[in-house]
Amino acid sequence: MSNTSLITHLRFVGFAMPQLEEQRAFYSKEWGLTEVTEKDGVYYFAAEGSPEPYVLRLRKDDKKRADVISFGTASRSNVNLLAELLKLDGVKVIHEPCELSTPGGGYGVRFFDLDGRVVEVSAEVAPREHRELASGESIPARLSHCVVNSPNPQATVDWYEKYLGFRVVETLHIHGRTLMWFMRCSHPQHHVFAVGNGPHVAMHHVSFDMRGIDEFLRGVGRLQRDGNELIWGPGRHQTGDNAYGYFQDAAGNTVEYTAGMSQLDDAWKATEGDLSDPAVLDVWGTSNAWGEHVMRSHFNTPDEGLFVAPPL
User: Fold this and answer.
1) Which helix (H) or strand (E) holds 88?
2) For residue 90, is pLDDT > 90?
3) Using one digit for the tens of pLDDT, what is the confidence trace for 272-295?
4) CATH of domain 142-299
5) For the chain, what are the domain ranges?
6) Does the structure show a pLDDT above 60 at 1?
7) Contact 226, 247 (CB under 8 A)
8) Residue 252 above 70 pLDDT?
9) Residue 191 main-chain phi, psi, to 5 deg
């Protein structure tokens, strides 16, 4: 295993919150995921176009938190080598590499990152039967990426580079301050993970890829017609070249419909973007303005589960 080829993709994100039933209804009836199973109070949701057994898991808790962020790797030997490196450097491992009992099984390890988030890396997860989405079908095809907030963003970026092999492909700046670090894994997708410069540790947003731009716009419109507030969008970021439309789920986490993200070849070089240029945020010029309302949504509320492992 080379460190820079460790992570192949983002598998799933887990949330815990008091409003479990409201969350289940939002993600299945509004957002367009498929609730596939429940086990020990955890509900698992798949994206119809994805081979992952699930891309989202929900659990009821008195406190709101991001339960776990899970990444894929190519082999169980990668999992073992990662665990050895983590333990050698004193990183707190939640559970040693083991067979997983979650849908799809597999072999994985869990640990805390620098900020106290729970991270899982797994291999040999059995794929789910999935299908090609039809033209015009405005539901998520797959999980695209997630972004976290950190009050110590550069240290968090360095941590993910060191242990998980992520590489910074682009940073966004304004008035001399860096606000965002976009990071790629071994997959050519522009980014599957990013770190935002935030006031506290929290999930910034979780993004779901649509079949195409038409389906993206249909999805944004459908959610608005159903009474969901469009926080920001529809537009197209210069960073990653992806379309964006941001909403909030029933617990106040920001979630995104996206489409069209760029793929990087072997000749890619890290770039910088200046947020004082409005085209960096939205090359189309169709979105509502980026401002305090958008930033409040993206900052989210402080994660209440840091350095505490979820029960499942």
Assistant:
1) helix 76-88
2) yes
3) 999 999 999 999 999 999 999 999
4) 3.10.180.10
5) 3-123, 142-299
6) no
7) no
8) yes
9) -155, 145
Q: Which residues pair with 159 in a beta bridge?
A: none
CB-based contacts of 208, cutoff 8 Å, min separation 6:
31, 47, 55, 140, 141, 142, 143, 144, 255, 256, 257, 258
CB-based burial label for 29 (10 Å; 0-12, 13-18, 19+): exposed
For residues 152 and 250, give the distance between their C-alpha atoms in angstroms, rounded to a whole number.
28
Instruction: Return the beta strands (E) in 193-242 as ranges.
Output: 193-197, 202-209, 232-236
- pLDDT for 4 equals 76
Residue 283's contacts (CB-CB under 8 Å, 6 or more residues apart) are: 235, 236, 237, 238, 241
* DSSP code of residue 189: B
Is the whole model's pTM more than 0.85, yes or no? Answer: yes
Indicate if the alpha-carbon torsion angle 215, 136, 37, 23 is positive or negative.
positive
| Sign of the Cα pseudo-torsion (194, 242, 230, 281, in order) | positive
3-state secondary structure of 153: helix
- pLDDT greater than 70 at residue 86: yes
Which residues, in sequence order, are CB contacts of 234 under 8 Å at separation 6+?
Answer: 216, 217, 220, 243, 244, 245, 284, 286, 287
- Bridge pairing between strands 193-197 and 254-259: unpaired
Same fold, 3-123 and 142-299: yes
Average pLDDT over residues 45-71: 98
Q: Is the pLDDT of residue 3 over 90?
A: no
Domain 3-123: top CATH class:
alpha beta
